[in-house]
């Protein structure tokens, strides 16, 4: 997307409660961006606020929306910019920052701001496709079933997440599987655009990019073929017992090929649409943001709907 002049009009959206956002870093980033560009800064104050701020910026002709926050805030901003010409620029401020790391953006937000300034100078923009589920867009994945139940557990303990993000996900996974998530039977069926039906799912991950997440510095890879310019990848897990789940988790850490050969896994790439239906309500999340329980989900791949600032 060509920009009209050297000075770019930028809105910086800041989630001050994100785990890596500090007052000092916020000031440094604000000064760096405002030195060369026309900068406006706004802070989020509630769920969904980033989407409204981003949508309003696009209407005003802002050329770039930079987001200093975690993946949830970034997802909201992306949802607000879909279908506009305003570009999205991630600045990592959360605990994991999956999407920023996937793009090769520096893990420190100040270093990432230096990268962003270079990208703006080079006019490094890319028009990309996104996943959509029941009207909500997602940047890197949507999790259904057990995965979403774990995210819900973590959100209920968000105060701990700020200081021990990765350990809390491990604790949440075990506690959810052992105490709160009913895995005694398949919770839903998945129908792909090819007509194939995968029955008895306990967990499904619909990927737009890879990796699925990071545990420390190690990527957790479920769909290695997923990327910015590809349709969706769908991974359905039918395992109902803890040893199988642990085996699958280890395979995702060390060998995606072994993961896809597991008898309790069905994996498909290049999916344009899919429908998940359950005989009872099941939970789902997008980009790590828990959205509640439903009995039906409609997934589609939407090409060329978002402009992204890339390193």
N-to-C order of helices and strands: EHEHEHEHHEEEHHHEEEEEEHHEEE
Q: Which strand-content bin applies to the residues?
A: 35-45%
Give start-end ranges of low-pLDDT stretches.
1-5
Total helical segments: 10
Q: In angstroms, what separates the terminal alpha carbons?
A: 15 Å
Text of the CATH class of the largest domain: Mainly Beta
* CATH-defined topology of the largest domain: Tumour Suppressor Smad4
Any idea what the shape is? Answer: globular
Number of strands: 16
Considering DSSP H and I runs of 4 or more, what fraction of the residues is helical? 25-40%
As a whole number of angstroms, the C-alpha radius of gyration is: 19 Å
Q: What is the number of domains? A: 2
Question: What would CATH call the architecture of the largest domain?
Answer: Sandwich
Largest sheet: 14 strands, mixed
- The mean pLDDT is 89
Give me the secondary-structure category: alpha+beta
Question: Which key features would you list for this structure?
Answer:
Tumour Suppressor Smad4; two-stranded antiparallel sheet; single chain; 2 domains; Rossmann fold; 10 helices; 35% strand
């Amino acid at each position: 997307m060509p920009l009209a002049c050297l000075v770019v009009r930028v809105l910086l959206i800041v989630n001050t409660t994100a785990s890596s956002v500090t007052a000092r870093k916020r000031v440094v980033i604000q000064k760096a961006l405002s030195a060369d560009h026309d900068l406006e800064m706004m802070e989020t104050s509630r769920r969904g606020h980033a989407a409204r701020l981003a949508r309003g910026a696009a209407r005003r002709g802002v050329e770039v929306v930079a987001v200093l926050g975690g993946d949830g805030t970034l997802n909201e901003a992306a949802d607000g910019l879909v279908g506009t010409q305003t570009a999205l620029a991630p600045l990592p401020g959360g605990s994991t920052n999956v999407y920023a790391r996937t793009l090769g953006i520096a893990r420190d937000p100040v270093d990432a701001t230096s990268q962003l300034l270079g990208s703006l100078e080079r006019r490094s923009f890319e028009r990309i496709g996104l996943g959509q589920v029941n009207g909500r867009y997602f940047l890197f994945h949507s999790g259904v079933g057990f995965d979403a139940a774990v995210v819900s557990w973590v959100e209920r303990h968000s105060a701990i997440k700020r200081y021990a993000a990765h350990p809390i996900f491990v604790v949440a996974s075990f506690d959810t599987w052992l105490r709160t998530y009913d895995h005694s039977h398949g919770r839903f069926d998945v129908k792909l655009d090819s007509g194939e039906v995968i029955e008895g799912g306990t967990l499904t991950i619909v990927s737009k990019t890879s990796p699925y997440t990071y545990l420390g510095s190690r990527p957790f890879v479920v769909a290695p073929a997923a990327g910015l310019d590809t349709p969706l990848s769908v991974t359905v897990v039918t395992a109902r017992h803890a040893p199988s789940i642990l085996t699958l988790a280890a395979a995702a850490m060390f060998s995606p090929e072994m993961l896809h050969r597991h008898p309790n896994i069905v994996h498909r790439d290049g999916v344009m649409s899919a429908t998940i239906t359950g005989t009872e309500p099941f939970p789902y999340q997008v980009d790590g943001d828990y959205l509640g329980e439903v009995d039906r989900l409609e997934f589609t791949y939407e090409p060329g709907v978002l402009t992204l600032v890339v390193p």
